[in-house]
Amino acid sequence: MKIYSNRKQPFGTERFGSFAVSMLLGAALLPGCTKQLPDHYVLESPDGKLSIELSAGRDSVWTYSFTADQTPLIEASTLGFVTPEGRRIPAAGWTVSAVEERDADTVWRPVWGKRAEVPDRYREVAFELVNPQQTAERLRIVARAYDDGVAFRYEVPAEDGAAALPAVTEQTDYRFGGDYTAWFYNGEDRNIGPELLTETNGTRLPVMTVRAGDKAYMALHEAFLQEGDPLVLQSKAGQTEFEVVDQPDTLAPGYASAWRVVLYGRTPGELTDSHLIELLNPDPAPGSDFSWVKPGMAVWDWRINGAVWDGFTYTMSYPSWIRMVDFAAEQGFSYLVLDANWYGPEFGSDSHPTTGDKAKDVQRLIAYAKEKGVGIWLYLNDVGGRGYPIEETLRQYGEWGAAGVKYGFMSGSQRDKNPWTQKITRLCAENHLLVDFHDGPVHPYGQMRTWPNAVTREYCHAQLDGHHVFVPSTFVTSVFVNMVAGPLDMNNGMFDLRQGNTTRVDESQPVPSTLVAEAARTQIVFSGATILPDIPEYYRKYPSLLNFLSAQRMPWRESRTLAGEIGQYIVMMRQAADGAYLVGAATNEEARDVTLSLDFLGEGQYEAQITEDGDGAHYLTNREVLKTRTEQVTAADSLTLSMAPGGGACVVFRQK
């Protein structure tokens, strides 16, 4: 860490251990010495390549700036709050009363995630500001620098004598150093972008992914949102500046804002691979046991409804459920997800979530599936979640032996949804239930570290609901935008890709993809519950692709985006729990060849089963053709994958 005074002369620039720094700064806390504390700080990442600079200007408006690889990317941008009367917090006259520095270098071993071990290395500075006119008014600004990004947040000390700050609005902004290109999450519609920052007009939702150069990418998001409004950004028309949209609130002692996060990567894949959002969340409460949380593949009853095969018509009922459980057990898939209406019409106020309609069949199914080693997820609509005691409903699901809850159509504003989401997540954990939030959920902000049972959510427009917007380029944009926030439930993997409408009851339109791309997308999308939408017979029809699906044994040991560009293509490598390496690739509407180094493989020789789009394949007109080959490779080799328009490639590497 480097700390500078307001004259920008070195102040403690030597590399000290944490104790030595505390002693040095502690001396400045003696009576009459507060003016000796610096009001200009440069905090460097452990590798020295990123920095966040915090300072008080002549008007005492605190700002931060962000530099990466010696290039200023965010210029001096405002920190703090403002009251309804226009008084700034902090304002002129506020002084730095304490400074603390901390370095961390540990390893996070998640219950499940993109990799088995995650370095948790950062440098942190926290400084406390006090209002001399009202000494009970205090504000802490805490900043961290990681090798893949920076973050900061605001805290109101909880110590005796500290006062609540009056109703305030956050004044954080982001003044970018150039007219960069950006993409934004856009709810149930296609992501916004690419658009120049000066072309943006109005509010935007995170994740905001930014290309600042050929080797400079950023993503703006937040982490550890305990209370208040989920992040919304407001652009300033014709400028390269955005600010946080925040409703006024009173900041009580003990308040801590969400972390404002700027991720950085030399490639867009480094943003997707980052764990920074999770790392800014705390570990589970002491004594918590999440050893029961098991990520995995799941089959699903919603999209199979109406499918016909060899005289059998699939419905959302017990006979079809049994067929799906048997298939899941056969392939080593972990779960079957039961969707809406199993306990009655999901929006019906008298549909009882534990006694209605097929509740007895569901209990029989759970018992049957348990013998097969398959867990059952249960859908719960917000009408039933709020209309009946949620504690009793989730306790009952746990006693039945259900594996998880898919919670849909939560009502209220995003501000209202967040505490309800937190409550349901906690209650699910208490009853050993995984949880998946759908239909406009609060965005992920790293919950999976504190609550590993929060395995996925529909922070995207699920592929089969999005025929009006979902095309190949939609997918290869959302994986660099939405997926930066956390695990996604996108429902990829449809294998019934016939021309024209199908017999499915819900969304019977054909999917604009190829078979190989559909399989690849299931591996590319990070999720603790990868939910497959088709019937067993269509998967069995294509053995090499079914092998690729079955090889996705979680938790992942390692993940790495090998190549890709926003809106164009992506190539993802993941190492399965049994040691197999999987590569999934997907492209936009253009055909593409990609040559990959296989240096991610371990020592020795591997057999690679490679499935690519067949000759003449096209995501609109010739979706179901494919070709498979086998090669013997080592880490010293390279491999070229060919993708048709809207297509993909799937590879399974197993050591010989």
Commentary on this structure:
Helix content is 18%, strand content 35%. It is an alpha+beta fold. β14 and β15 (192-196) form a beta hairpin. The longest helix is centred in the middle third of the chain and has 17 residues, at 414-430.
Index terms:
656 residues; seven-stranded parallel beta sheet; 35% strand; globular; disordered N terminus
Explain the layout of strands and helices:
Elements: E1 2-4, H1 18-27, E2 40-44, E3 50-56, E4 62-68, E5 71-78, E6 81-82, E7 88-89, E8 95-108, E9 118-130, E10 138-146, E11 149-155, E12 165-170, E13 173-176, E14 181-185, E15 192-196, E16 203-213, E17 216-223, E18 233-235, E19 241-244, E20 249-251, E21 259-265, H2 268-273, H3 276-279, E22 296-300, E23 308-309, E24 312-313, H4 318-331, E25 335-338, H5 359-372, E26 375-381, H6 382-387, H7 390-400, E27 404-408, H8 414-430, E28 434-437, H9 447-450, E29 454-457, H10 472-478, H11 482-485, H12 515-524, E30 529-532, H13 536-540, H14 543-550, E31 558-565, E32 569-575, E33 581-587, E34 592-597, E35 606-613, E36 626-633, E37 638-643, E38 648-655
Parallel strand pairs: 22-25, 22-30, 25-26, 26-27, 27-28, 28-29
Antiparallel strand pairs: 1-2, 2-3, 3-4, 4-5, 5-13, 6-7, 6-12, 8-9, 9-10, 10-11, 11-21, 12-20, 13-19, 14-15, 14-16, 16-17, 16-18, 17-21, 18-19, 23-24, 31-32, 32-33, 33-38, 34-37, 35-36, 35-38
Helix pairs in contact: 4-5, 7-8, 12-14
